[in-house]
Amino acid sequence: MQLLLGLLFISYFLYGLWGQYLTIQSNTIGKLNSFGILIKMNLSDVIWIKKINKDYTLITEDKEFKIKTDWIEKSSLLKLNNVLQQLDLLVDKTPFHNK
User: Fold this and answer.
1) What is each CA distance from 45 to 30, 32, 50, 81, 87, in whole angstroms?
2) CA-to-CA dists, residue 39 to 16, 22, 61, 85, angstroms
3) pTM (2 decimals)?
4) Distances (CA, A) of 99 to 86, 91, 96
5) Which ranges of 1-99 does DSSP label H, i.e. alpha helix?
6) Which residues contact 60 (CB under 8 A, 6 or more apart)?
7) Most C-beta atoms within 10 A of its C-beta, which of 26, 35, 69, 71?
8) pLDDT per residue over 49-87, tens digit each?
9) Which distant-in-sequence residues (6+ apart) come within 8 Å of 34 by Cβ?
10) Which is nearest to 30 in space by CA: 57, 84, 67, 5?
């Protein structure tokens, strides 16, 4: 039984490493954590986008959602930037205000 649980844990971990890191569907963004569990955030709840180096932190009233852009393919990163740029945020609450 312990062997089976260990194999399941390793498979979830590996899927998190090599699986799709980030998904955006119908106003929801989701990412896999290191245990293979999908963590979601509603994009309409985002009140602030922080950009630190190349990474993003999406902030709502009660949550933070960190996105490591090094893990995202270049074409997908362009799509992510487009989605984040479309969010209706105050100029001082987004790194996209100059675009």
Assistant:
1) 13, 20, 15, 17, 10
2) 12, 10, 16, 21
3) 0.77
4) 11, 11, 6
5) 2-18, 74-86
6) 41, 42, 45, 46, 47
7) 69
8) 999 999 999 999 999 999 988 888 899 999 999 999 999
9) 13, 16, 17
10) 67
Residues contacting residue 28 through CB under 8 Å, at least 6 positions apart? 40, 41, 42, 43
Say whether 88 sits in a helix, a strand or coil.
Answer: coil
Tokens of 15: 């899927």
Please state the length of the chain.
99
